[in-house]
């Protein structure tokens, strides 16, 4: 399965961060609001566990495992990821069995390395086999610049990700597995009579953050993948390469708050309103109406309405049959020639193959945003 993402846009304004790598993305459209070296390779640390969780959720959806299944805690998992390792741990007991649900909760809340290894061994038999599953699913999702070698994120010179890929991975988890998303905002978890708080301290700050994962190694520094619905839309942020836990918290808070507050919502087109028409070659109609999925709303930098222009872009002419509801185009919104948002557009009606071949015309239509 491949998740289709809108082309990333870029609305850089007057904002900066101490993070070496950063990105801020609108979850619904995939629009990138801010980025800083978002396509450079970086060590994921425990943020790699989001890929581990994605594989587990994929196995649950396929019915190959269940939340009630219990997996065995091997000596390898106990030694490599347990209390003896000195890293983040669930404190799982050697030779015990733990349910998939509690292992998932530990990976997300406690960042348990032992829990991640137990999941990997329970699903694939070994960390190496599980890493192959991680990379296969990453390719399906479209994470083109990431490579995983273990389920924990423990340092490995061959493992790398990008901030953009981590944001896209978070978007995949949010979109495809909303039934499990509540685990990311649980404030704490107790296991083996040891209570640990959620390692994402932003969850408890009261600023609307409800996920997703932190990470830290000596070589990589401190990082986190963050999400919030504060401000009327869901945002996803990634910051990494910071020097302390407190700096990670503050830079993450600043980026996610700026994204929620520095933009205003503009209702561009009502539900069902035709934004433009796309040419159809050889169909029963020479064109098809383009509409949003519901209301087309734009999130624009405050005070930028006078700078706006837009275009509808598609690869065309379209070839029939074009089915109502097919995503066939996108609305690209610009401010002073800078791309600030991309919104998907869908066929408003079905156009079947016709008897008369119609002349193909230019596939790029310009329109003026007179409604602003």
TrEMBL record:
Top-level taxon of the source organism: Bacteria
Enzyme class: hydrolase
Catalytic activity: Preferential cleavage: (Ac)2-L-Lys-D-Ala-|-D-Ala. Also transpeptidation of peptidyl-alanyl moieties that are N-acyl substituents of D-alanine
GO molecular function: serine-type D-Ala-D-Ala carboxypeptidase activity
Keywords: Carboxypeptidase, Cell shape, Cell wall biogenesis/degradation, Hydrolase, Peptidoglycan synthesis, Protease, Signal
UniProt-listed Gene3D superfamilies: D-Ala-D-Ala carboxypeptidase, C-terminal domain, DD-peptidase/beta-lactamase superfamily
GO terms classed as biological process: cell wall organization; peptidoglycan biosynthetic process; proteolysis; regulation of cell shape
EC code(s) of this entry: 3.4.16.4
Peptidase S11 D-Ala-D-Ala carboxypeptidase A C-terminal domain span: 263-353
Keyword Protein biosynthesis assigned: no
Family the UniProt entry places it in: Belongs to the peptidase S11 family.
PANTHER family: D-ALANYL-D-ALANINE CARBOXYPEPTIDASE, TRAFFICKING PROTEIN PARTICLE COMPLEX SUBUNIT 12
Protein's name according to its UniProt entry: serine-type D-Ala-D-Ala carboxypeptidase
